[in-house]
Write a structure and sequence with these properties.
single chain, Rossmann fold, 9 strands, binds adenosine-5'-triphosphate, three-stranded antiparallel β-sheet, alpha/beta
């Protein structure tokens, strides 16, 4: 078991946004977190990374909880937010050094890995650049490089496909495959359902703060045989929206 969310009720104030959510992400598995705007994807992620505290239910990561052992829990997670969060006063090199320090990585090994990742994302000649000089996609790539430097057990990636060029999407999917093969779990929220259909091992479909359905694409298609052939069709049918509307 990597991530286990059980009966999570949560949100931002007294009124819960998430109403009794349960799902798991197993080691070596890429799970797609799918849902309309406002369905509760970011709220779920905010609970997993510890920005929000559950009102009810539990979140465990390899047996650790945030409440019992915050350091051990957080050390297992690498998070790539939808909107890149970088420090304006730090260079790319300093961002990488900070990640290495924060995760207690061996500098020699980590720099070897960093150079591979920087080359993949064509940032290898930009180590002295500040975030102000990067485009939005380049900032996203910096966050990807920092996340994949770590030996995290769980990667959480919030909508990676909208700001990245097709080559970077391809390279990111290859990296995900690599960390999955090493036993990490990956939870990815996205609206790009055709890519998700091909890449994800399982799906959790959220609707109005509830898990509407979950399973592999084959399982979901078998459960809703009349809903359509693609994840996009099934999702539109399940949320009650037709293509003609
Ligand atoms: N900071 C906040 N304070 C109060 N309510 C919030 C806050 N952020 C989100 N919400 C509410 O929580 C609900 C779920 O929002 P959430 O951001 O989790 O959706 P989402 O599935 O990530 O949507 P999107 O696809 O637009 O990113 C919405 O009703 C939203 O209005």
């Amino acid at each position: 078991m990597a991530l286990a969310i059980k009966h999570l009720v949560g949100g931002y104030s007294q009124i819960p946004v998430l109403k009794d959510i349960s799902f798991e992400v197993q080691p070596g598995e890429l799970v797609g977190l799918i849902g309309l705007n406002g369905a509760g994807k970011s709220t779920t992620i905010n609970h997993i990374i510890g920005l929000l505290t559950p009102m009810k239910g539990s979140i465990e990561l390899n047996g650790q909880t945030l409440a019992a052992n915050p350091q051990a829990y957080k050390a297992q997670i690498a998070y790539i937010p939808e909107t890149p969060i970088l420090y304006e006063e730090l260079t790319l090199k300093e961002h990488l050094e900070m990640t290495m320090l924060a995760y207690g990585l061996d500098q020699t090994q980590a720099w070897k890995r960093a150079h591979e990742l920087l080359k993949i994302f064509r940032l290898d000649n930009k180590l002295s650049w500040f975030p102000a000089n990067f485009s939005k996609g380049m900032k996203q790539k910096v966050m990807i490089v920092c996340a994949f430097l770590t030996n995290a057990k769980l990667f959480i990636i919030d909508e990676p496909f909208l700001g990245l060029d097709p080559l970077a999407v391809h390279d990111l999917l290859a990296l995900i495959k690599e960390v999955k093969a090493q036993g990490a779990g990956v939870l990815m929220s996205t609206h790009v359902l055709d890519t998700a259909e091909k890449a994800c091992d399982r799906f959790v479909l959220l609707h109005s703060g509830e898990v509407q359905t979950q399973g592999t694409f084959a399982e979901i298609r078998a459960a809703y045989p009349d809903a359509g052939a693609s994840l996009n069709d099934i999702y539109l049918a399940l949320t009650g929206v037709t293509r003609d509307e």
